[in-house]
């Protein structure tokens, strides 16, 4: 029987040397018996090996496909779905029985929908939380600026809403720390600078030392037609019109109707006079 391999040329019998060649043309061997590929495939052991190799390749491809299915499905499902359940779902979805396959595919689709709905709900809650944090930062910065510039705290209920809409809040994506600023025609300024300019232009009636007789901003002057159009009076009670009152008249009109200030009047559900 011919040997398939010799470690060196010297080991090969002289009469058989023409049937051997070094591996990859290496002169120092090893030396292998040369057989044509077509003849090699007909050898029983080689044929069995080739068949087994083909089967192994098929299994490898099947495992790879299932692994890809597993990874894809796992990415779409909630984190608390255990691996055994995922494998069970994949096995069912790959079933040859059409009814079983349909049932498992329906289960997978429902899990995906439920997961997406839960994800959207969490995202919505996060969005609300961010908005609330923005509002807290906005009001804190604005309230401090109002105090620093001498605005009477009793006007905060009005001014925090009126001026707050102009304050922009930016959150650091890494730390979550929030900064506040205001965009103006002359560029971006901090909130304190914005309030300072607002007080000079429009806010003097709201300063703590700007009270006139009766505690009304603006020297206690009340427009002559206040009674006819005062939405805080019983005859004119109208919550929508109250909210639309100009800033410079709100407190005066509310006090004229018997309320402490505009905020107290807005909280009331009925007129006093």
TrEMBL record:
Keyword field: Coiled coil
Annotated Gly residues bias: 212-221
Region annotation Disordered: where it falls in the sequence: 205-227
Chain segments annotated as coiled-coil in the UniProt record: 49-76, 101-139
Superkingdom classification of source: Bacteria
Name under which the protein is recorded: Phage protein
